[in-house]
Amino acid sequence: MRPPPRGTRTTLGVRTVCAVGDAVSYEGPRGVVRLRGNHLGQRLYLARADVLGFRVVARL
Q1: In terms of pTM, does the model score above 0.85?
Q2: What are phi and psi of 49, to 5 degrees?
Q3: 23: helix, coil or strand?
Q4: 54-59 and 31-36 strand pairing
Q5: Residue 59 in 3-state DSSP?
Q6: Which of 2, 30, 52, 60 is in Cβ range 3.0-4.6 Å of 44 for a Cys bridge?
Q7: pLDDT tens digit string along 8-45?
């Protein structure tokens, strides 16, 4: 598969992403997201907020 010309936008098809499934991940503002078994996995936090901040009460 050749790379697209510089300055063009492309998207990957579902079959392409599934073919490399366990190797697909990205890091965004909410942390690392990984593709495993056709599902995206991401760490979630449950927090209690007060006036000046918050406290994490559980990691899901």
Answers
A1: no
A2: -100, 150
A3: helix
A4: unpaired
A5: strand
A6: 60
A7: 666 777 777 777 767 778 888 878 888 877 777 888 88
DSSP state of 21: G
Helices (H), the chain: 14-19
What is d(CA 26, CA 12) in angstroms, rounded to the nearest whole number?
14
Domain ranges in the chain? Answer: 14-59
In angstroms, rounded to a whole number, what is the distance separating the alpha carbons of residues 18 and 56?
34
How is residue 59 written in tokens?
Answer: 């990691």
Type of residue numbered 3: P
Alpha-carbon gap, residue 43 to 58, rounded angstroms: 11
The count of C-alpha atoms lying within 13 angstroms of the C-alpha of 59, restricted to the half-sphere facing its C-beta, is 2
